[in-house]
Amino acid sequence: MSEAAAQVLGVIPIAVGIGRSVAANTIAYANELYQSGERQETPCERALFDMLQLVVNLGGAACLVIYYTLGYSVPLGTAIAMAANMLTTMFLQQVLGLSRYTRMSQLGILTLVVSVYIMAAAGPTPRGDDVDAGAAFAKTSSQAWCLGLIALGVVSIYGIHATWHRPNCSRRKTLPWVVLNSCFNVLTDQISSVCGLLSGWSLVAGGAAWLFVSAAQVPTIVKWPSNTNVAIYVPMQGCVQLGLNMLTGFFIWEDERRIINMPLYLSSSLISFVGIFMVSGEETEEALVGKANSMGVCLLEERDEE
Q: Three-state SS for 20?
């Protein structure tokens, strides 16, 4: 692959992160207008917004399929898309008047962007074509990890049902949506990565598995923006998915063998988690939900947490 082609492919996670943020915040802004009574929702508009969310997310997933099938690191792709998503989300949330970001949260996002840049320089190099996919998934650790992801997804479905009537600014309501979408994303990302090593009927089976998991995720893709606070969801989801993808890389693909500088990779990953924590910390959340608290929406949640 030429250097120019590699640079073009490297932009894919950035474009995906920006596109998903634009779609999610468009829906969140419309939902804010509906809840405040400034605009009345029509079935046509709701269908249009659901279609927008679906098309952007599936289009982004298709782009990432190309990225991962060529052997690029899933954790790095996830981190780059997450940084682009959160930076775009911060800009749109403040421009649209949906949330106020404190200086701490702004610093956290900038910290995340810098740490992800370091991760990309120190992290796993693209995987070669000589990797045996069957041997990678035949390991006991790989099978146990995959079963654990499926079990985590099942538990998160119960969590969504149990917290359905909580206000959107509730972290307890947001968490199961975060975990379920993260599990789905990890599964689709890893299937995409495996497809790059397959051929013939094995490749067809891998593509069918990707389509099945993607179809199962459609309801959560469509519904999470209108059931959570985007400013809380995005950093939380990025943190969970990045952690799961990093562990998957170690458990299944033995990423430690391809990492350029392990201490720098792990330390920059830790700094990225710190940046995400700064974005979703108590000070930031108070600013994010202050508008909702003024309307009395989140008072019940505050009493519950006390």
A: helix
Q: What is the pLDDT of residues 270-293, one digit of tens each?
A: 999 888 888 765 444 444 444 444
Is there a contact between 248 and 136 (Cβ–Cβ < 8 Å)?
no
Is the whole-model pTM more than 0.85?
no
Cβ-defined contacts of 32-37 (< 8 Å, 24+)? 32/98
pLDDT in the model for residue 283:
43
Band of residue 18 on the pLDDT scale cut at 50, 70, 90? very high
Give the tens place of pLDDT for each residue, 115-158: 999 999 998 988 877 778 888 888 898 899 989 999 999 999 99
Q: Phi-psi category of 151—alpha, beta or left, where left has phi over 0 and alpha has psi -120 to 50?
A: alpha
The residues facing 259 across adjacent strands are 124
Q: Residue 145's pLDDT is what?
A: 92
On the CB side of 82, CA atoms within 13 Å amount to 35
The one-letter code for the residue type at 193 is S
User: Which of 276-285 are b and which e, b meaning 16 or more Cβ less than 10 Å from the residue's Cβ?
Assistant: bebbbeeebb
Sign (positive or negative) of CA dihedral 57, 63, 65, 67: negative
Contact criterion met (CB below 8 Å) for 182 and 237: yes
Domain ranges of the chain: 3-305
C-alpha span between 287 and 74 (Å, rounded): 33
Q: Which residues pair with 124 in a beta bridge?
A: 259
